[in-house]
Design goal:
By secondary structure, this protein is of the alpha+beta class. The protein folds into four domains: 60 residues, no CATH class; 98 residues, Beta-Lactamase, CATH 3.30.450; 116 residues, Beta-Lactamase (2-Layer Sandwich); 166 residues, Reverse transcriptase/Diguanylate cyclase domain (Alpha-Beta Plaits). The protein is built from 17 helices and 14 strands. The strands form three sheets. It has a five-stranded antiparallel beta sheet with strand order 6-5-9-8-7, sandwiched between helices. A hairpin with a 4-residue loop joins β11 and β12. α1 packs antiparallel against α6, α2 runs antiparallel to α3 and α13 packs across α14.
C-alpha cells in the first residue's frame, strides 16, 4: 500500500486534499470539454453567439416569404396585409415587415419603421435585419424585408443562455458526476493508492502464513496464496471485497473474544493486536486453529492508511498438544492402574490369602515399628495371642472346607473388634496375634474378653452349608510393662498366657502373671 509522499521543500502551494477518484474525474471531464472545443474549432459543432437566433429568425423569414408568394400571385392585398399583421402580433421580436418589388417599389409595410440611421445600415442582411427574395417561377419578383428587435449584449445571464455555454455546462457537470460514480466503483478493484506490484504479491505468496492487506475501508487489497488455501470460499478473487463479506472468517471467532475483530480495532485506533485465537471451521476437513496478528500501515504523517493481518496456522501444534494431553492422560491412567496393581501385589504379599490378615513377615515389619516407638515414648503396648479351641476336631468331623470357614469367621470377628491402628496377624494355622499400640493391660484384657464373647456368640451361626458345634477361642494377654526387651519376647509372654488359658479349660482370657505382680 503506497503512502502519500511528503511535500517537496520549496513548494509554495499545498497539496489539495482530493481523493484519487475526484482528481481522475476532473481530468476526464477536462479532456471531454477540450475535445468538444477542438471539434467546434474544426467542425463548428457548438452554436456560437447569435448563430442559434440567426437560424430561428431566418426560418421565420423564409416561412413568411413562402406564404406571401402565393398571396402576391393571387393579388389579394387584403389577405397579404392580414397575414403580415398576424406575424407581427405573434412574434414580439419582429419590429416591421416590408414587401418590395425587384425595382425597389414598396408594395406593403407594417410595423415600426426603422430610423434613417438604421435604414442606412440595412443594405445587407444581418442578425437584426433580414432580406428574403420572393420568386415568381424562376424569376426574382421582389423581396421580404424583416426588421427584428436588437439582441441584448453582455451580462452573465445572457452568456449562460447561449446553447453552446449550456452544452459545455451540462457535459462538464454530467461528465464529472458520471465519471466519479463509475470510478468510485471501479477503484474498489483498482485503487491507485493501494496498488501492489506483482513482484510483491509473488513474494507474499511464498509465505507460509496467511496474509491480508486491507485499505482504510476494510477492503481487501491483497490476499496471499496461504490465506486463499485456508477455506474453499477463499479460493476466488478477493481483491476489492470488504472483509465483512467473508462470513466464514468472522464465524470462527469464539464467544469469549472481543466483539470487534482485530483488524477493525487496528483501523479505528491504530492498535497492534497480537496472537488472538481464531478457530476456523472447514467443511469436510479438520478445524484450523490460527493466531491472528494485526498491525497498522501508516503514511509519513502517521495517518492510518490500512492494516496488515497475518494468520499463523497453529493446527499442527494444537493437534500435538491434544495428542500430548491424551498421552499424559493415558500415562496417568496407566500409572493409576500400576499403583493399584502394586497396592494389590503389596496387599497380596503382606496379607494372608484366606483371612486377609497380615502374614507373619508383614506383621513383624509393622509390629517392630510400633514396639520401638512405644519403648522410645515410654507408652503402653500390649500383645494378644488367640487360638481356636479344638480346631483339629472341626477338620476331622466336618472336613477341611468347614475348617477353613471356621478360621475365616474367627478372623472377621477379630478384625471387627479392634481399632484400625491395631495390628492383626494370622500367626499360625488357627492361631492369631494382635498388637495394640498405646494400650494398657486392663484395656487389652477388656478387648480380649469382648473378642472371646463375640466369637462364642456368633461364630457358630456364621458357618454356611452345615450345622457345626459351638466355636470358641482362648486368649493370652501380655504387656510391654512385663519387662519384654524385644517384640518376640513380648509375643512369647502372650503365648504363655494363652497356654494357661488352654490348661484352665479354654474359652477364657489370661493375662501374663509377671504383669500382675
Amino acid at each position: 500500500m503506497s503512502s502519500l509522499p511528503a511535500r517537496p521543500a520549496g513548494r509554495l502551494w499545498p497539496r489539495w486534499g482530493m481523493r484519487p477518484v475526484t482528481r481522475i474525474s476532473l481530468g476526464l471531464t477536462a479532456l471531454l470539454i477540450s475535445l468538444l472545443l477542438v471539434a467546434d474549432l474544426v467542425l463548428g459543432v457548438v452554436p456560437g453567439h447569435g448563430q442559434y437566433e440567426r437560424m430561428l429568425r431566418k426560418r421565420v423569414a423564409e416561412n413568411l416569404a413562402v406564404q406571401l408568394t402565393s398571396l402576391l400571385q393571387s393579388g389579394d392585398h387584403a389577405a397579404l396585409g392580414k397575414t403580415i399583421q398576424q406575424v407581427l402580433a405573434r412574434n414580439a421580436e419582429v419590429r416591421s415587415i416590408s414587401v418590395h418589388r425587384h425595382d425597389g417599389a414598396l408594395v406593403m409595410q407594417r410595423g415600426e419603421l426603422p430610423s434613417l440611421a438604421e435604414r442606412s445600415q440595412q443594405q445587407a442582411s444581418d442578425l437584426n435585419h433580414l432580406r428574403v427574395p420572393i420568386l415568381a417561377g424562376r424569376q426574382l419578383w421582389g423581396e421580404v424585408e424583416m426588421t427584428f428587435v436588437p439582441l441584448a449584449s453582455g451580462g452573465l445571464r445572457q452568456w449562460l443562455a447561449q446553447p453552446g455555454v449550456q452544452l459545455l455546462v451540462v457535459l462538464g457537470l454530467g461528465g464529472f458526476l458520471l465519471s466519479h460514480a463509475y470510478l468510485s466503483r471501479a477503484m474498489q478493484y483498482l485503487n491507485p493508492s493501494a496498488t501492489i506490484p506483482d513482484r510483491v504479491r509473488r513474494a507474499y505468496d511464498n509465505l507460509t502464513e496467511g496474509l491480508l492487506i486491507l485499505d482504510q475501508q476494510a477492503r481487501i487489497v491483497l490476499a496471499n496464496a496461504a490465506f486463499r488455501r485456508m477455506h474453499p470460499a477463499a479460493q476466488v478473487d478477493l481483491n476489492g471485497q470488504p472483509i465483512q463479506s467473508l462470513r466464514w472468517l468472522l464465524n470462527g471467532r469464539d464467544e469469549g473474544q472481543p466483539e470487534v475483530p482485530p483488524w477493525e480495532r487496528t483501523l479505528h485506533s491504530a492498535e497492534n493486536v497480537t496472537d488472538e485465537v481464531l478457530r476456523l471451521p472447514r467443511p469436510g476437513e479438520p478445524d484450523l486453529h490460527l493466531l491472528v496478528t494485526s498491525a497498522p500501515v501508516v503514511d509519513d504523517r502517521g495517518k492510518v492508511r490500512g492494516c496488515m493481518v497475518s494468520f499463523n496456522d497453529e493446527t499442527a501444534l494444537h493437534r500435538s498438544h491434544a495428542d500430548l494431553r491424551q498421552a499424559l492422560a493415558e500415562v496417568e491412567h496407566a500409572k493409576a492402574e500400576v499403583d493399584a496393581k502394586n497396592q494389590e501385589l503389596q496387599r497380596l504379599a503382606s496379607r494372608d490369602p484366606m483371612t486377609g490378615c497380615y502374614n507373619r513377615r508383614a506383621f513383624f515389619e509393622a509390629a517392630e515399628v510400633a514396639f520401638e516407638a512405644a519403648r522410645a515414648a515410654h507408652s503402653g503396648l500390649c500383645c494378644i495371642m488367640s487360638d481356636i479351641d479344638h480346631f483339629k476336631s472341626f477338620n476331622d468331623t466336618y472336613g477341611h472346607a468347614v475348617g477353613d470357614q471356621v478360621i475365616q469367621v474367627v478372623a472377621r470377628a477379630l478384625t471387627g473388634g479392634i481399632r484400625p491402628t491395631d495390628i492383626l496377624c494370622r500367626y499360625g494355622g488357627e492361631e492369631f496375634c494382635i498388637v495394640l499400640p498405646g494400650s494398657t493391660p486392663a484395656v487389652a484384657a477388656e478387648v480380649a474378653e469382648r473378642l472371646r464373647a463375640e466369637i462364642e456368640s456368633h461364630a457358630q451361626s456364621a458357618i454356611r452349608g452345615t450345622q457345626v458345634r459351638r466355636i470358641t477361642s482362648s486368649f493370652g494377654v501380655a504387656s510391654l510393662l512385663t519387662g519384654a526387651k524385644t517384640l518376640k519376647e513380648l509375643i512369647d509372654h502372650a503365648d504363655q498366657a494363652l497356654y494357661r488359658s488352654k490348661e484352665s479349660g479354654r474359652n477364657r482370657v489370661t493375662v501374663h502373671e509377671r504383669e500382675l505382680a
